[in-house]
Automatic annotation (TrEMBL):
InterPro entries attached to this UniProt entry: Methyltransf_25 (IPR041698), SAM-dependent_MTases_sf (IPR029063)
Pfam families: Methyltransf_25
Keyword Transferase found: yes
GO BP term, pick one: methylation
Molecular function GO terms recorded: methyltransferase activity
Keyword Methyltransferase applies: yes
Domain Methyltransferase: 41-139
Record's protein name: Methyltransferase family protein
Domain of life: Bacteria
UniProt xrefs under CDD domains: AdoMet_MTases
Keywords tagged on the record: Methyltransferase, Transferase
Length: 250
């Protein structure tokens, strides 16, 4: 299976940094409210490890299973883990995907940020079912949803930029409908020095779309209740076992 991040990993971590300025504290707040007090935290699609650092600070001492299928992204993730003594003790990096990675039972929390759209509906439902079975009492699955929520065209837009030394890095995104519940994103990246282009990369990948209501209904079939958390603009959702929820998170 080809790795769409092989060509974009050079750019991704620096271009998502600004988004994590808001997403990181919101995730930390959600994790601090999880009622389970023991167990491993599973970070699905851990990417370059920004979420792993949030988990480290929000849940001191908790072991972390960081699942990342892309070798290119794992290179950044492993470097980030290795340079921090606490992360080296607590984080296990697994070269697998959401469907293939093994979790322990009694998971304290599952973090699945910026990755649920990668899952076809069947795999998405399998994730809800697995979480319902393997979460510890009071455990939670945290994920986010972002527009579009239907298969529509997304006009090309500059999504992020960063300046490092004399280099300016930029990322652009567009999408087109490619199925009844699917779009294909086209991501374009570039680096410029004093206005002159030094490199370009582009990648396309499939993304399955669904409304919050549809996702809540799927989760309910697995025995999980969905609730929103934090600033609505971030799209954070929390799933807990429906028979153990007792208070609002967010």
């Amino acid at each position: 299976m080809s790795d769409p991040y092989e060509r974009s990993a050079e750019y991704l971590d620096i271009l998502i940094a600004e988004a994590w300025d808001a997403l990181g504290p919101a995730l930390a707040d959600v994790l601090a409210r999880v009622r389970a007090t023991t167990g491993t935290v599973v970070d699905l699609g851990a990417g370059s490890g920004r979420g792993v650092r949030v988990i480290r600070d929000a849940l001191p001492g908790a072991p972390v299973l960081a699942v990342e299928p892309s070798a290119a992204m794992r290179a950044v993730l492993l470097a980030r883990v290795h340079e921090d003594a606490e992360l080296r003790r607590r984080v296990t990096v697994v070269p697998d995907d959401c469907a293939g990675a093994e979790w322990p039972d009694g998971v304290r929390a599952v973090v699945a940020l910026n990755m649920v759209g990668h899952l076809p509906p069947g795999q998405r439902r399998a994730l809800w079912g697995r979480a319902a079975h393997q979460l510890a009492p009071g455990g939670a699955l945290v994920f986010n949803i972002t527009p579009p929520f239907a298969p529509v065209e997304v006009e090309r837009v500059r999504m992020a930029g960063a300046v490092i030394g004399e280099m300016e890095y930029e990322g652009w995104a567009s999408a087109r409908p490619t199925g009844a519940d699917e779009i294909t994103w086209r991501m374009e990246y570039g680096v410029l020095r004093r206005g002159r282009s030094l490199g370009r990369a582009s990648v396309e990948y499939r993304w399955w779309v669904a409304t919050e209501e549809a996702l809540a209904a799927e989760a309910a079939e697995a025995g999980l209740a969905l609730r929103r958390a934090g600033d609505p603009a971030l799209g954070l959702c929390v799933l807990e076992r429906a028979d153990t929820t007792s208070s609002h998170i967010g």
